[in-house]
Every structure is written in structure tokens, then in C-alpha cells.
Design brief:
Elements (H helix, E strand, L loop, with lengths): L1 E2 L2 H14 L8 H12 L4 E4 L9 E9 L13 H13 L5 E4 L5 H13 L3 E2 L1 E2 L12 H4 L7 E4 L5 E4 L5 H14 L3 E10 H7 L1 E2 L1 H18 L3 H9 L8 E17 L2 E9 L8 E6 L1 E7 L2 E5 L3 E6 L5 E2 L9 E7 L8 H7 L17
Parallel strand pairs: 2-5, 3-4
Antiparallel strand pairs: 1-2, 3-9, 6-10, 7-8, 7-9, 11-12, 11-18, 12-13, 13-14, 14-15, 16-17, 16-18
Helix pairs in contact: 1-2, 1-4, 1-8, 2-4, 8-9
Protein name: DUF917 domain-containing protein
């Protein structure tokens, strides 16, 4: 797949916000960077992991930080390009392909811009099929690949290399501390892997899914009087392990939020448009972690929650939510690999300090 048009980028960005489950960073900054590359006559080549040689060198490119400060840190076009060069110096070999660490939000778009800059292919896969707040919350880590070395830089050129850590969680703690001291938003090259590792450990076909969602929302909005029907037709396909539910429709009546420890923390309360007594709550740590209707869980991490403008069906990030907004909240099932017991230990409810036991969306 070649990405080289404005419409494709808009579709990709829209799908990235949906799969970002509220977080992952507003992709607007990455979209600007990618559009700039496309207008220079460059393009993005997306390949399947199966096309990689087993000894190919793959690396993830990702932003780390609080999404609420992202627009204050417009990325230099040299930032991530320099990170690839630093990673090559650390590994002593050339990078052959880039893989997004997460498919949601900014971190699905930034690897595309780097691909266009350097002429490297991007793999149609990632480490979670959504967005998560911790860098160790990826299938790469669960199945034994190490996050380090990690090359870090901000938009001013300040850079740090984390050469070795005892665990990927320790790498997260160190990166988060560096992030807090470099303006609460940094960029990184991390999780160097071989082609064989990538094939075995990634969540596959997620860039294609991202594009499908973004394109589907646009086309449904253009062609249907009720676009949600077209969107749900994409999201709800049980024969290929896709499940989706409309969790709530209503307006925001309360928001509490803060930026703390490099994360965006928030809780959102919604009420029905008809003034009924039902209350829907969203718990947020960068991403939507849990949806509850009248105190009962309706969708729980790692399954995905997305908020869409009720009229336009445009997906919204958590930091974009405002008092009085009219929203439709949709829950979708995580990729099957994400629901395995070994994965749930890392990014299931327990990974976020919750006492709830994970129950799949379609069983709630």
C-alpha cells in the first residue's frame, strides 16, 4: 500500500483518533509533518510483516508524554530522523523498516512521516492495536523483546540514550522521568527487533484497519443519512473477531482532569439527552480505560472505547472533550492476541491498579 494523497492522510488520522481510545496524542501535529512530506513528492510505503527478511532490522518510533501539551511542542522534521541515526549507531547496523509502537493517535502518524523522510517502509502492524500510556504495554515486551536501547530527543535537540535496564517497566520509569524534565513531550526510537521477532510478536494488519475505519467514517458520512450504521458495519464483524457496541449516547455534564507525572488523568460523566437519570462514566489515564453505566462496567481495558461527535461521527481525543458536548460512545474488542492471559497481566485491568476482572466486551 502506498500513501501519497491528502485524502489518505485524513482517513489515516481519523482512524488513528478512533483507535487511540482517547489518547495516543492528537495526530494533528503528525498530520502536518506527513502532509509536508507528501507535498514534497515523497510517499509512504506500507508492507506486511511477512514481506520482511527474518534478519531485517526493525525499530519503533513513538512519542512519549502528556497529550494535553502536544500542540505546545511542534516537532522538528529532524527530530525522529536523528533518532533513527542514533539507533543505527547503537545497534551497529542499518534500520530496514519502521513499525509503530501503537496504532492510536499521534504514534500511528509519526512513523509515516519518518518513512517518507528516509524512504523506509512502514510495517502494517504495531504492538497493541490501540494506544496505551506505558511503553512496556506492548506485545513486543510481553513476548520477550526488549525496549532498550531507547534513543530519546525533544524538539529542541536535547537527547538521551537509555542503554540498558533490568525490565521494560524500569525503562518506562526512566523515560517518564526524562520526559518530565524535557517539557512533558519527547520522541523515541525503541524496541529494536529482527524481522522474525516482528512477525511473531506484533499485532498485525492494524494500519490497514486504521485506514479502513477512517475511510469508512468519511464515506458513511458522505453517503448515508445515518452514518453510524455504516461505521458499525465495519466494527462489528464477529466472523473475523471484530465486536462492537454502542455504549452510550448523551452529553457531557462533568469533567475533572489534570496533567500529572507526564500523563493526562481525567474522569468524564455523561447524561442522556432526554434528561433521564442514567449516568455514564469514563475513566482516563491518557486513554479511556473503563466505561460504566450507572456504576456497572460496560467496556474495560484492553478493549477499546471511542468517543464520536454525535452529529458528525468524528472521533475525539480525551483532551478535546468539553462540557456540554453531545457524544456517542462506542466499545470495540481488542485484537485476540491482546486478550491472552499473559497479555492481560501487563495491560489488562490489573496493569492499571484496577480490581475488576477482564470480561470481553461481547460478554458484558
Amino acid at each position: 500500500m502506498i500513501i501519497n494523497t491528502v485524502e489518505q492522510i485524513k482517513d489515516l488520522t481519523r482512524g488513528a483518533v478512533f483507535l487511540g481510545t482517547g489518547g495516543g496524542g492528537d495526530p494533528y501535529v503528525g498530520e502536518l509533518l506527513l502532509l509536508q512530506e507528501i507535498r514534497k513528492g515523497r510517499h509512504v510505503r506500507v508492507i506486511k510483516a511477512s514481506e520482511l527478511a527474518d534478519d531485517a532490522q526493525v525499530v519503533s518510533i513513538a512519542g512519549i508524554g502528556a497529550p494535553s501539551v502536544l500542540v505546545e511542542h511542534l516537532q522538528s522534521e529532524d527530530t525522529c530522523r536523528s533518532l533513527v541515526a542514533k539507533m543505527e549507531a547503537q545497534l551497529g547496523k542499518k534500520i530496514d523498516a519502521i513499525i509503530p509502537a501503537e496504532i492510536g493517535g499521534l504514534n500511528s502518524i509519526i512513523p509515516m512521516a519518518v518513512s517518507a523522510q528516509l524512504g523506509l517502509p512502514v510495517i502494517d502492524a504495531d504492538g497493541m492495536g490501540r494506544a496505551f500510556p506505558h511503553l512496556e504495554m506492548v506485545t513486543f515486551s510481553v513476548y520477550g523483546s526488549s525496549a532498550v536501547p531507547i534513543c530519546i530527543a525533544n524538539e529542541f535537540g536535547d537527547s538521551v540514550i537509555i542503554e540498558k535496564t533490568t525490565t521494560d517497566r524500569k525503562a518506562e520509569d526512566l523515560a517518564r522521568g526524562i520526559c518530565a524534565n524535557l517539557g512533558a513531550m519527547i520522541y523515541s526510537a525503541l524496541y529494536p527487533m529482527s524481522g522474525a521477532e516482528t512477525k511473531a510478536k506484533a499485532v498485525h494488519n492494524t494500519l490497514s484497519y486504521c485506514m479502513e475505519i477512517g475511510r469508512g467514517i468519511r464515506e458513511a458520512r458522505e453517503q448515508l443519512s445515518n452514518p453510524i450504521e455504516g461505521i458499525m458495519a465495519i466494527l462489528e464483524q464477529p466472523d473475523i473477531d471484530r465486536h462492537a457496541r454502542i455504549l452510550f449516547e448523551g452529553k457531557v455534564i462533568d469533567i475533572n482532569r489534570e496533567t500529572r507525572d507526564g500523563w493526562h488523568w481525567a474522569s468524564v460523566v455523561m447524561a442522556p439527552l432526554d434528561g433521564g437519570d442514567d449516568r455514564f462514566e469514563l475513566d482516563i489515564q491518557n486513554e479511556y480505560l473503563q466505561g460504566k453505566l450507572n456504576g456497572k462496567t460496560t467496556c474495560l481495558v484492553p478493549d477499546l472505547i471511542a468517543t464520536l461527535d454525535l452529529d458528525t461521527c468524528e472521533p475525539l481525543t480525551a483532551e478535546a472533550l468539553k462540557y456540554g458536548q453531545r457524544l456517542r460512545v462506542i466499545g470495540t474488542a481488542a485484537a485476540p492476541i491482546m486478550r491472552r492471559p499473559e497479555c492481560l497481566k501487563v495491560f489488562g485491568p490489573a496493569g492499571f491498579g484496577m480490581d475488576d476482572e477482564f470480561v470481553p466486551l461481547e460478554a458484558l
